[in-house]
Amino acid sequence: MDIILQYPDLFIFLFLVCLGYGAGTWVEKRHYASIKAREEQFLNLPVVTGSKGFFDRPIEKSVLVSGNVVVSIDYFKRLLAILRNIFGGPVKSYESLVDRARREAILRMKDTASQLGADIIVNLRLETAAIGQNANRKRQIGSVEVIAYGTALIYRDT
Amino acid sequence: MKFTPKLPDHDVNVSRTHPLAELFWLLGGLVLMAGIVFTALGFATDLAVTKTPLRVENWLGKQALKRFPASPNPPLQRHLNSLLTTLPADSPLHAYTFQVFLSENNDVNAIALPGGNIVVYSGLLRQVESENELAMVLYHELGHFAHRDHLRGLGRGLGLTVASALLFGRDSAASEVVSKTLLSFQVNYSQSQESAADSFGLEMLTRHYGHAGGSTDFFSRLATTDKGKLPYLLASHPHPENRIEELNELIDRNGYIIGITLPLAQDLRLHAP
Hints:
- The complex is a heterodimer.
- Chain A is an alpha+beta fold.
- Chain A has helices spanning about 1-5, 10-40, 75-85, 90-115; strands spanning about 60-70, 120-130, 145-155.
- A three-stranded antiparallel sheet of chain A has the order 1-3-2.
- In chain A, helix 2 packs parallel to helix 4.
- The longest helix of chain A has about 35 residues, at about 10-40.
- The model of chain A has no long low-confidence stretch (mean pLDDT about 85).
- Chain B is of the alpha+beta class.
- Chain B contains eleven helices and four strands.
- Chain B has helices at about 20-50, 55-65, 75-85, 120-125, 130-145, 150-170, 175-180, 190-210, 215-225, 230-235, 240-255; strands spanning about 70, 100-105, 110-115, 115-120.
- Chain B has a four-stranded mixed sheet.
- In chain B, a hairpin with a 3-residue loop joins strand 3 and strand 4.
- In chain B, helix 1 runs antiparallel to helix 6.
- The model of chain B is unreliable at about 230-235 (pLDDT under 50).
- At the A-B interface, helix 2, helix 3 and helix 4 of A face helix 1 and helix 7 of B.
């Protein structure tokens, strides 16, 4: 008990790392399950990055659609990244974070488009930003933002 | 060409390594690296201690003394000075100006600090009963100086603290833990260093008094005292029983005689608080 009182910082850090691993893994699992389900659901709404040659049919309406998401890292992922800073190599703990953010942003965009009754989304663009410029500084938790936007096209019924 | 929507079988953007496995490898690598650094520092220190100029050592000693609430003690100093006269003419210890300090502390211990400073805890002085016994303790510390053990332990602790500060940042909790446990001037010597200092002490004691009387008294008192009272000394030094055995073996081998010990001078006696 004494040792905990002597080094409170260390034990708070260890607690946060354990919490980060437990909660982070649970949240990530749930998020991936939800992502996969919704990707199935929106499978028939095509999204392309090109802007020409996809609309041979007359177009009723075109709308700008966007979806964005911010995902935060946890202490466990940050610890792995710090260790990676020492040895170098791929920061695997951040890969799932960026992957989730990208897929979630596209799904939200698709969600908006399907509500509008879109047939296709063309000219998809993805942009990303780190929230908090000092995300890498000590005792700071960073987040990643991904915004996906494109043009939703609704064909004229023929 | 017809567009057929299909989801990919698996996600190539996320590595499949289990995060705990990665943590294990990374931490393992870090521990290995720290081990290598620690070993290398040990070798570097062993090399450096033989070449450290006295000037640097004196400066280190001054820094170390600042951490101890210790004051010079004239009776102890007189005792030490008389002990120093027995040192052989070619002893490396003649390069030092030895100073002895008394520190108010209930631990039963004495410490050799760089620069020829010896700190004796009042807890130790309260236990000592004869002049010879005290001489044995002081000669033991002088033995650490003769073998330059005081610099060896310091160098390793210092190096590790610097390394952890570089890795984790100067004011992180990790470096604080490392420095608190390792950058301690009350370094724990290895058992072989303690034995070497003991045999140095025994040799000098016999030279000074003409007999080995009192050399084991202090340790036999430690061996019988309640261990709970002496956690520090028992933790950092070999078990007193083993030290007595070793000393007796040396006494037999060298044919030293055990004479009658002198009572402790009046001005060195401390009354229990």
